[in-house]
Amino acid sequence: MLAFLFRRLGQGLLVIAVMATLVFVGVYALGNPIDILLSPDADQLEREQAIVRLGLDRPLWVQFALFVRSALTGNLGVSFVHGVPAIDLVLSRMPATLELALVALVISVGVGIPAGLAAGLAPRSLLGRGIMTGSILGFSVPNFWLGLMLILVFAVELKVLPAGGRGETVRVLGIELSLFTVDGLRHLILPALTLAIYKASLIARLAYAGTREALLQDFVRFARAKGLSRRRIVGVHVLKSIMIPVVTVIGLELGSMIAFAVVTETVFAWPGMGKLLIESIYRLDRPVIVAYLVVVVAMFVIINFVVDVIYTLLDPRVRVAGQEA
Amino acid sequence: MRGLKQIVLAAAAAASIAAAGSIATANGQELKNELKIGLSAEPSAMDPHFHNLTPNNSLLRHIFERLTDQDENQAVTPGLATSWRTIDDTTWEFKLRGGVKFSDGSEFSANDVIYSFCRAPRVESSPSSFAIYSRAVTDMTAPDPLTLIVKTAGPYPLIPSEAATIAVLSAKANGAGAVTFDRQECKGVGVYPKTEAFNAGQAAIGTGPYKLARFTKGDRIVLERNESYWGEKPAWQRVTFRPITSAGPRVAALLAGDVDLIENVPIQDLERIKANAGYKVVQGLSARVIYLHFDYVDDAPPGVDAGGKNPFRDKRVREAISKAIDRDAIVARIMGGVAVAAGELLPSMMFGANKDMKAPKADVEGAKKLLADAGYPNGFTVVLSAPNDRYINDGQIAQAVAQMLARVGLKVSVEAMTSSQFFAKRTRREFGFWLTGWISDTGEMSAQIKPLAATPNRDKGWGTTNPGGYSNGKVDALLDQALGTIDDGKRAALLAEASRIAMADYGVIPLHFEMTTWAMRKELAYTPRVDQNTQAMMVKRAP
Predict the structure, then answer these.
(1) What is the pLDDT of residues B219-266, one digit of tens each?
(2) What is the DSSP string of A142-191?
(3) Of B332, B358, B323, nearest to B344 (Cα)?
(4) SS3 sequence, B309-325?
(5) Torsions phi, psi for B155 (to 5 deg)
């Protein structure tokens, strides 16, 4: 297990290093942010001084060497736009994104698995067919359109929920969270639903396929022959076997929800990392873009690792590669 | 079946939360003492000396004040100084307002102004510094706490208008003693506060009508009324600014009752908001001009194919381009009427503008004739570059201009791109012919002529946004003379003349002035500002 952990860590760091290099050079090639940062009143002298203040006067390789040196100490540079360390900026936006992704995940699992299971158990019933048709709709609707429609219906027309932004936060373990206030939850519902509907449909379809397959398996027949109650067969044995593909997908989708909630965050003016990324790309704020991607890649590495560990817990036949080594 | 039960339960829970909140935020809610504003751009810091850009300057005017102020037409008015005069051509005397207190209770005096002018040009990693507004100052002294003497190297008439840009901090609150001004290194300033200290709130101490209560980047800025403010108290006890940078969600936030007022309303939503009885729209002319510019320097400007010549050096070609454009049609069709056709670079009510300058009318035949006279009877090929996400409908305006130029025989293709690309390429001089916009912070004609139409000159700081290198000796001479003329009336006349000459030479071709729009609940009223700022102090209850 330890060898596996270290190998994973090594791979993760390599990916982060390669990615940071590519992004650094890529954003550099996009152009100089100075032209959109400067006041129109700035003269040539001020322009030159601003370039020096931001360290943009040095050649690319010097800038990159400086970046690598400070990155090794955990400092990913100072934001051109905000003048504060880029990594702090990204991390300060992380709780908002994480709680949004988590609520969306809970909704999509809470809705998707029971729905898929129900449909898988009774594929020909009205309920089963309804769920499967609904799920096709759920993942064909574009994210941004769904968000706008939800805003239009619940915020603009019915006026029961806010159109965007994050609600009141409370400090929990040193982190500002809006999960624990009524105002916070009201702000969370629409963006979380927007993110969740696609995932819920996906999970429902996976659970449906898994259930139908599991019901034909020998272990289910055996359990039935043994006289186990239907509740126990479905609730324990079938559920456990359909969870393997579902966990894989949840893992991947959680990562993508955190990393690419960009559209949802923009539509709902949600102050998360995605909105920060979009604004930073717009203003070529290279340190923030690099810091954001480093954080996201690190997160993917961690999530994948956790998924691997969960596999072993769900299915005794799966062994983590390298465990024997 | 368990699944269904869960869905129903979850839906019920969601609905009950929604219902619990809806009582408080239903649209019929009374406007109390709190105002919520949706901003289209987010300030990058709460440090008033960090980033010289409109979103920052606009917001920080609530918390900090300056020696002089600008009214809604950017005319200079008293601020922390009640009056000013010149003692001789290079010496200014400012009389300061007595009895003004900072929000921490300390007394305002001339020492704070000197301290602020010392710090403003020296902010670490500032992406756009205020140094440009203090560069003319060679010395600053305070003969008594409410008198400030400012010295300049030569006659410099812009001292009062530039004083409207540098926010005054408290020297005492930041740990400074008596400050001695020195261009190289001020003495007695101690350690300047860092930008983070302003963002966190402890250094955000000003004399303005509001105090900073909370700044959460990306989410909100909350201000509380400064109850010990010396001037007229604003109507709102608490103001929350929320950056909602996408236009659609910003409109939705207004219509949903999340916010009471929004700025920069997209043109396509104006009718919808006007049609709703609960809301209204306020529009005002802004100082932002949309214009066309050329590359004069290169023999073969990028994207231009005119038989090996640079056609833009010929005044007849430039005039033909101006004549080919139907400004009224652009205003009416593309801008939805939310713009005013422009005849020069500044609206007529502003300092140094010509009162009688009319926007040129379209004249297709005249333009064709001018092109034929210039030796291009069959036109030439040119690329028109433009940003597509910076100004109101900028990409569409460029398309319209291209079509209008096609009517007189030019073969124009439009190359529209995101603004970060556009401005970087323009600086690298990769364009031959481009469309862009301009607004200055000081708001007088010299701030338009100097960067756009004066011959580029690094020592003087001229022609900063004139990468095409337009050069006209008469314009330069008049500008030089104006910038050395202290008398406001004479200076305005000189600048108006410089502008008239540059326009008659078609050195820069103005298209229109943008109008700025604000949408708000009908119980509110706002006085539009030419600088496009959104200020809670100017939001009143509708009579």
Answers:
(1) 999 999 999 999 999 999 999 999 998 888 999 999 999 999 999 999
(2) -HHHHHHHHIIIIIIIS--S-SSS----EEETTEEESTTSHHHHHHHHHH
(3) B358
(4) CCHHHCHHHHHHHHHHC
(5) -60, 130
Residue in B58, B70, B128, B198 to test binding to A, most A beta-carbons within 10 Å: B128
List the single residue in A82, A166, A283 with the smallest CB-CB distance to B420: A283
Chain B: give the shortest CA distance to residue A317, in Å.
29
Are B113 and B140 in contact by the 8 Å Cβ rule? The answer is yes
Contact B438 A40 (CB under 8 A): yes
Residues in chain B: 543
Contact A257, A105 (CB under 8 A): yes
**Could you say which residues from 440 to 479 on chain B have a Cβ atom under 8 Å away from some Cβ of chain A?**
440-442, 447, 451, 458, 461-462, 464-465
What does the block give as tokens for B241?
Answer: 């600014």
**How is residue B415 written in tokens?**
């190359």
| Distance between CA atoms of residues A22 and B305, nearest Å | 37
Q: A84 contacts in B (CB within 8 Å)?
A: 195-196, 199
Instruction: Give the C-alpha separation, B358 to B512, whole Å.
Output: 11
CB < 8 Å & 24+ apart, contacts of A45-48: A45/B135, A45/B458, A45/B461, A46/B128, A46/B129, A46/B131, A46/B132, A46/B461, A47/B464
CA atoms A261, A266, A271, A274: torsion sign? positive
Give the DSSP H or E segment for B300.
none
Beta bridge partners of residue A171, listed in sequence order: A176
Considering only CA atoms, which of B106, B99, B130, B100 is closest in space to residue B116?
A: B130
Q: For residue A95, list chain B residues with Cβ-Cβ distance below 8 A.
A: none
Nearest by Cα to B146 from B91, B63, B80, B101: B80
Best of A27, A28, A43, A242 to substitute, by most chain B Cβ atoms within 10 angstroms, is A43
Inform me whether the C-beta atom of residue A143 falls under 8 Å from chain B C-beta atoms. Answer: no
For A96, A178, A298, B26, B48, the CA distances from A154, given in Å and listed in that order, are 22, 20, 36, 12, 39
The answer to whether the CB atoms of A40 and B2 lie below 8 A apart is no
| Confidence class for position B79, pLDDT limits 50, 70, 90 | very high
Q: Are B496 and B479 in contact (CB under 8 A)?
A: no
Task: For residue B29, give the chain A residue with the closest CA.
Answer: A159
The answer to whether ipTM exceeds 0.95 is no
Q: Pick the residue with more confidence: B127 or B168?
A: B168
Residue B517 β-bridge partners: B283
* H helical segments located in chain A: 2-30, 34-37, 44-53, 60-72, 86-121, 126-140, 143-150, 182-215, 218-226, 230-232, 239-259, 262-267, 273-282, 286-314
Specify the pTM: 0.86
Q: For residue A126, count other CB atoms closer than 10 A to its CB.
A: 8
- pLDDT (tens digit, 9 = 90+) per residue, A188-221? 999 999 988 888 998 999 889 888 888 888 888 8
Contact B421 A161 (CB under 8 A): no
Say whether B5 sits in a helix, a strand or coil.
Answer: helix
B145 interfacial to chain A (CB closer than 8 Å): no
Whether residue B511 contacts residue B342, with contact meaning beta carbons closer than 8 Å, is answered with: yes
In single-letter form, the type of residue at position A191 comes to P
Task: Scan for tokens 């000003």, then name that residue.
Answer: B206
